[in-house]
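Researcher: I need the complex structure. Ligand is LTNE7NMQ. Inputs:
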Amino acid sequence: MTKNIHKFGGSSLSSAQRYKSVAGIILEHTQPGDCVVVSAAGKTTDTLVKLWQSYQQQDTHVIADILLQLNNHQIDLIEQLLQANTKRNALKILNEELSTITLLAQTGQLQEAQLLAHGELWSARVLAAYLQELNVDACVHDARALFTLNDGQLLHEQNTQQCANLIAHNKINVVTGFIAANTAGDTVTLGRNGSDYSATLLANYCHAKQVCIWTDTQGVFSTDPRKVSKAIKYAKVCRGQANLLARLGNPVLHAKTLSPLKNTDIKLSVRSSFDVQASSTDIVKEGSAKQKRFITTLQNIDLLIVENLSEGDIAHVSQLIQHSLHHFSQNGETYLVVPAISTHQVISYFEGRANINESSLHGCAVIAPEQDISKLDLLAINLLNSHAIEPRFAHQDSGYILLLTDQVIDSDILSILHDKLINKGQEIALIVAGLGNVGEVFIEQLSTQVERLSDDFSIKLVGLVRSQKMLFNPNGIGVSQWKTQFQLEASDYQNQTLLNAIDELDYEHKVIVDITASEKFSRLYPDFVEMDCHLISANKYAGTAPTNWYKALRTSISERNLHWRYNTSVGAGLPINFALADLQHSGDKITRIEGVFSGTLSWLCSKYDGSIIFSDLVLEAQKMGFTEPDPREDLSGRDMQRKLLILARELGVELNLEDISLSALMPDELAQGSWDDFLSKKSQLDSFIQEHAKRAKAKNSVLRYTGLLEIAENEVIAKVGIAYVLQSDVLASLTPGDNIFVINSKWYSDNALVIQGPGAGKEVTAAGVHSDLYWLVQNLR
Ligand SMILES: NC(=O)C1=CN([C@@H]2O[C@H](COP(=O)(O)OP(=O)(O)OC[C@H]3O[C@@H](n4cnc5c(N)ncnc54)[C@H](OP(=O)(O)O)[C@@H]3O)[C@@H](O)[C@H]2O)C=CC1
Ligand SMILES: N[C@@H](CC=O)C(=O)O
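Model: Output:
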């Protein structure tokens, strides 16, 4: 049974390397019986159109050039992808076909559609042959045997039967997009971007479950992400809004692509074939997702008034000019928005029923939930006016506003409109992992913050995660009753359950707040990022992961325009990462950071005077919520080593944990075994500390645990360890629990910049996590 239809466009097949990537996707994402619809490789259709025009103009030089170009491109693909007999065979067929084209042209028998069809035929054949070489049982279908039209109308019943007869249930069916046949057996095309339409038609005829359009963008965005960096990628868009978008300037989907899905349950996804890990946008049935806000731009259009416009006219004209069309009524007139380049063709089609009302227009369309439209209309006009743009024509309808102007809406204006119209009132889903010392306080402080930020965003807590249990509610968990709700409703925690729940969320923004100390949880970050989640970490594991993993994560975050905040991973609530980033952005160069970066070790060393045994102080620090879940992470120096690595990476220094030398504040032996084992041997820790305190005293010094990062031209010194500091030193009089960062830089060379304050504690840390959340929300605006 055919379950899924996958469609790959020209850009996904533009080179041999791209074919290999597509084959990789097919291997991973398809099963026997699925169909793979392909467009012509790269710009092949454009080249074939030029060839057709050159034949019309009988321009022999250009014809020869184009034929050579097509031949070389195909030979290149065949040579790189196929082997032995398959290759020889493919080259022979290509040669024969190009000769036939020449012969047909010379005898005046060449037809345009028949010529254009070669693009899809070539890609389908090369892809299927390449898949076969990879041992995939693939077959090729020429869609002219599957889709028949009579007088421009698809013969649905006949086509369903043809698909049932020909589509193989035990193979991967590679199908040519874009082309069909008429009842006389001649080739016809389904119009520009017809391959998407082929895919949804095939899904309808084969009763498929899902169509996946693999393209060069990651999905459907609130606006063009190439023009507006804060464009929001939506996880779900309803078909009605997708249809409007297609008609009002968004090129990702075309209105006719959606038509075969009407009255079906077939799911449509838009995914990137260039970034396979990225999440998709799903186009779903009305009511299955909330209505979103979009802004699209229109350029070089004319506005026609048409008499007695029918749906049939729209279908015919769209086919004629190969463009999705939008029409609407206002004050008793019916308007049609057409690309200026096609106005002449459209007017002739209507034979006196259409007149130009306004010409040479540009503008924008805002699509939004019905109830927001009037408010947004006013706001949009005011914003345009404030930039000296007076709409020449305005139309407000259910679910959208159309503002047509003399000026082009450029990226700058579009960004402003997007910020003020689209990026307001958006919903942010918050998933908090780690409900320990810091996590609990973070949630207690949450309701005030949610209220404070509510002007711009509606923040909803949707997930709470502990090591063994999780609570997830896409509609929101009551912040004031979270504990009771967690006790009563939490289910067993599993990574996949959590990931599935996040993937299903229909929110504009998703934020994972990691307040665990779990390495295992941090390993899920790449999955979160693939689902377009922003990250806030108090957890230090991801920030100190091996360089390759860390860099890949960073790249993936920046490619998706996401944010990762982790200020509390060093210095708890102190603004150390902010300060370093700020200095660097302002042109400073940091050369040295020295100090005490552990609240726990600061507290322990400052408190210890021999009157209370050291291990009892450790237990007290643990009780106060200062220490890591296992305080040996602190005593081993490992936690401070992590902080130093985070600081180093913040400054662009490429280090791994092993590059930071470390001496522990406990005997190595105590690092092994369980916490109970440690407690049974804690006297060893006490003797160890006693001994160091004695040695320090002998030098008129006190025992401290310090870190140093020194960045010279050719050398980086990075170390954490025990230090004996003179009584007169600033580190000797540090308030217990305080961190101190002494920073030297180009600007702070002789007189260092000092940041000092509490470096651990649940309240300050939770407040620091809120500061990261606040920063993030400000940057989503
Ligand atoms: N305490 C402080 O002063 C500061 C802490 N931090 C950092 O904040 C983080 C939390 O510290 P703290 O609150 O003190 O730690 P706690 O040990 O009190 O809390 C840790 C929480 O994480 C949960 N958890 C553990 N493993 C997983 C997992 N695999 N998946 C999901 N949840 C998990 C635990 O679940 P369960 O409840 O089931 O055990 C617990 O709720 C740490 O990374 C720490 O380094 C940063 C700055 C200062
Ligand atoms: N154990 C840590 C807590 C914060 O990271 C410390 O004491 O600094």
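Model: Summary of the prediction. The chain has a mean pLDDT of 95.
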